[in-house]
Design goal:
It is built from 16 helices and 8 strands. Strands 1, 2, 3, 4, 5, 6, 7 and 8 form an 8-stranded mixed β-sheet that branches. Helix 4 links the parallel strand 3 and strand 4. Helix 9 packs antiparallel against helix 11. The C terminus is likely disordered.
């Protein structure tokens, strides 16, 4: 028999102190450089692009490849001389750091549930004049420097909802910008010795003896041992003909099913794996300690969700396709999280983060499309996908790159345009110069 528990997690609102935030901004470059070994690089033209819309409402939408991205975006706010608000996962608000995050403008969101209070806070902030809000639209960390996971449409949808409320109060459509931001980490001083030391630590921990000198082959040997160990833990025997990607997909599917079956969660297979993991974690968080008795190993279920998130975007061939230090280190970090059971692996060296600003999308230009979408869905709620003639019958001006994508309702179309621009920026070789 299943039980439904109510989580006692409380919404953590922003408690921004402008004066203290400005003070922290003034010293943050030094702190981050020496403590986190990070230096950001932002082109003056990109800074000018953002300062040109500084008086407007702006939502920044960066990719999320490491747990340090929040630090980088805060550095960007310092470079611009602006105060940002930030939507941050509830779990990140721990102790003094959590209090400090609220002080500089961060507030919580519980993933895997409909966090009404967080949504209402977001709508409130979006309606403030000159609001600057940061939302990571991937909904979680990919842990891969060159990978962008599918953007969730919530940021665009909430922005349109805020625009609608503003229109109702002001009787006019204000400018309202969505800005794609790419964050790309580089190790300018990386050497093979650094990679060798990281590989050696893992080989020792896994009791893996090797006489191989090739760094990539050593990485594959470590990855093979980790994959086999996890399969063994969950009593899985891989198909002999299966390649690594097939084994990874099967393992991911099995781990999801294991968690959902143990917690009696009805699987929603059309949801992305990450969303299903967040749902599992939210159910776990709602179970009181007094109820965590019996045969179910709740800690193992939780650790399984951590594994799923750690390896969510991974695929065989990521390093082989482009064996840069950045891809080596990203993969090594994943393996260290698994083998050493840690959240933040040891920094591998000084990091330079190239911040690229994409073309801002002004939702004001797409207000009529949003209204048309809403009216059409209200009139024909059971109809399937829109046809091309429905989509852009009135669009002849080739605005931005939104029209270049598949014909979809405008929220999904803009979401994909933002994701596409970030992805292109990450793979652009000019990002490195």
């Amino acid at each position: 028999m299943s039980h439904v528990y109510q989580s006692d997690a409380k919404f953590l609102p922003p408690q921004q102190n402008p004066l203290l935030t400005r003070l922290i901004q003034s010293i943050f470059y030094i702190v981050v450089y020496f403590v986190y070994r990070i230096r950001i690089v932002v082109d003056d033209r990109d800074v000018a692009k953002l300062k040109a819309i500084a008086d407007q409402r702006v939502v920044y939408l960066p990719n999320h490849s490491t747990l340090d991205d929040g630090l980088v975006v805060f550095l960007l706010s310092a470079r611009l001389g602006q105060l940002f608000h930030y939507v941050v996962a509830y779990e990140a608000f721990q102790g003094l750091v959590g209090k400090l995050m609220q002080t500089v403008g961060a507030y919580s969101i519980r993933r895997g549930v409909g966090d009404r209070q967080s949504i209402m806070q977001t709508l409130k902030i979006l309606q403030q004049p000159q609001c600057k809000l940061v939302i990571f639209p991937e909904g979680g960390c990919s842990y891969q420097n060159d990978t962008v996971m599918p953007f969730r449409s919530g940021a665009v949808e909430l922005s349109f909802k805020a625009l609608k409320k503003l229109y109702q109060h002001e009787s006019k459509i204000p400018d309202f910008y969505l800005v794609p931001v790419s964050l790309k980490y580089q190790y300018p001083d990386a050497t093979d010795d650094q990679i060798d030391r990281a590989l050696s630590r893992l080989e020792v921990a896994l009791a893996l003896k090797t006489t191989e000198d090739d760094l990539y082959l050593r990485l594959r040997a470590i990855s093979a041992r980790v994959l086999t160990n996890i399969e063994t833990e969950y009593h899985l025997t891989p198909v002999v003909e299966a390649d690594w990607n097939q084994r990874i997909r099967f393992l991911r599917k099995h781990l999801l099913n294991y968690c959902e079956e143990k917690l009696q969660i009805v699987p929603v297979t059309e949801y992305p794996d990450r969303e299903r993991v967040y749902k599992i974690q939210s159910v776990l968080a709602a179970i009181p300690e007094s109820a965590k008795q019996g045969e179910i190993d709740y800690e193992h279920i939780y650790q399984t969700t951590v594994r799923l998130l750690n390896f969510d975007a991974i695929y065989d061939g990521y390093v082989a396709a482009k064996p840069t230090p950045e891809r080596f280190f990203a993969t090594l970090d994943r393996l260290e999280r698994e083998v050493f059971q840690i959240d933040r692996p040891k920094f591998k060296g000084q990091r330079r983060v190239v911040v690229k600003i994409g073309t801002p999308i002004n939702l004001k230009e797409y207000w009529s499309d949003y209204q048309s979408d809403s009216l059409w869905r209200w009139a024909e709620p059971n109809r399937g996908a829109w046809t091309e003639s429905n989509r852009f019958a009135n669009h002849q001006d080739n605005r931005n790159c939104v029209q270049q994508l598949d014909q979809r309702p405008i929220i999904d179309t803009i979401t994909q345009a933002l994701q596409q621009e970030v992805q292109v920026s990450l793979i652009d070789n000019n990002t490195y110069h």
